[in-house]
Amino acid sequence: MAHAVTLGDGLDVSRLGFGGMALTPVYGEVDQEDALRTLHHAVDSGVSFIDTADIYGGGSNEELIAQLLKARRNEVQLATKFGLVGTPADGYTDIRGDTAYIRKAVDRSLRRLGTDVIDLYYMHRRDLRVPMAETVGAMAELVQRGKVRHLGLSEVTAQELEEASAVHPIAAVQSEWSIWSRDVERNVVPAAAALGVGFVPYSPLGRGFLTGTVDASSLGDNDFRRRIPRFAPDAAGANQAVVDTVQSVADQLDATPAQVALAWLLAQGRRLGLPVVPIPGTRKAHRIDENLGALDRELTPAHLDALGEASEAVVGSRSADPAWVSEGRE
User: Cα(306)–Cα(201) distance, rounded to whole angstroms?
Assistant: First the structure.
């Protein structure tokens, strides 16, 4: 596997992953044949860590990835999630982390994915009504039964990660982390580093905003980003300054803004002492090639200082409901 990295609990994955949510109607309509071609191109290019969830497209994203897995299961490190009720496009109605729900959720995902084992199974969000020990204990049972190989947690606090790790080894924490979403660096990233847990940043390109290709004022009515505070007109205008800094660094390196944003995350992982595997999503095969170019980009201390300074001026929360992510509970 090209550019392999080991997360926690001995899980080896490609240096960059692929976020499957982009291949659902969350940012607009998707052509399924194009989506499948994009997935195959990712694996052809060495991006073998494929991330999905049971609620992406109401389960249709898992079914799409099943088509990839039919002939290529041994080439893929497969991650999926349970816990959210609803869909990103239509909104979420509940979070479930009880044992009965987890047992049903994993079987539904296995059926949709057409496989008998999931490499990395995440708790998608924290159900505060259920003790962490019960949720992780139910997940550990799935490892014992051979349905899951490794466990992950999404959008947890440092304390929640510590509680979970006392029950079973955790391979990875997945949370939003990027140049404009750095709240996780305060608590959960140091906790993950101390516990030997890898970090999988989702939306490493700021849901596309950091690439300079997204006009927040022209998002479609069914675009999920319309509900995120920092995409509101006033906030997006102020946040354009972050994009301008990313573009400036990209120009100096003869790189693209996406490459700079991803290279920054990889540099942060080295600085903070833990394995970091971003999972940018895209609908276009050529963007995968572009993203992989980040692996060969080196940011200077001056570049890192400029990007860090820009990140401090971000306006607006990264979530419509901060209590549903670690930002609102730390």
Answer: 21
